[in-house]
């Protein structure tokens, strides 16, 4: 328990330091958006655009805190003074509901269950795809090293694991075979990074692994930024990864930022913001914008995590709780490697 509390305190301290460094003292109202790792590039463009569009440059200062989604949610629950949150798993925001920080009806406060856009899990490989990786099955081959975020700390890590499980359930008849497939993939994982951006850095900059499991927006950004080095592979099936937003009501009431927070979030559904999201390779929910950018988003069979595996409470209890299926498979995979 002491180790857990120390870890939480460290998360809050790091986030507060980042928050402090990201703005200069002034008389503007401060609005803090605590968000998951790989949406930072979108908000780096959205924030100045929002201030310019609303004319709030002289009144409002926008700051960001980024990290693994679940770690971010725990930090807010433990005292990080977020005005709004942007996370990829509804249960992380539900944690804040249980703490009395977010309204219970947060998904009814904005369109599309408070999800302005989303992504899908894809594979990023070296240029020319030298290992000929085409689908999830290739990740179980002994000659392939796989990079993904840690499902214990990263929502995108959980989506990566569940995408593998969805493939296994479709192609293997029973649970032991499915688990054997997952264990084979996990045996090929040399490192589990805390967040999706850390996993991307390990793959693209530290040259670790042969394939990265990543959300489409992150994989496409890496591919475009380093176009001579990487290609994106779309597997046969994948999971849709929604982006959720919510106002942290307890904090906005205390900070007198509620109206700013609501305007900041509501504007995400505007056509211009939807176009900006599409330019950052998020799949927009606005149908006209989606049609406009249709060529940017290949058709792929997308599964919904909750429709496929049950509620997040069920998923977390079965797979990601201490000594859950992920822990057991990962420990077995590491033990197998040492033999």
TrEMBL record:
Alphabetized UniProt keyword annotations: Periplasm, Signal, Transport
Cross-referenced Pfam families: SBP_bac_11 (PF13531)
One GO MF term attached to the UniProt entry: molecular carrier activity
UniProt subcellular location: Periplasm
Any Gene Ontology biological process: sulfate transmembrane transport
Main location: periplasm
A single Gene Ontology CC term: periplasmic space
Gene3D superfamilies in the cross-refs: Periplasmic binding protein-like II
Record keyword Transport present: yes
Alphabetical list of PANTHER family matching this protein: SULFATE-BINDING PROTEIN (PTHR30368:SF2)
Family: Belongs to the prokaryotic sulfate-binding protein family.
Record's protein name: Sulfate transport system substrate-binding protein
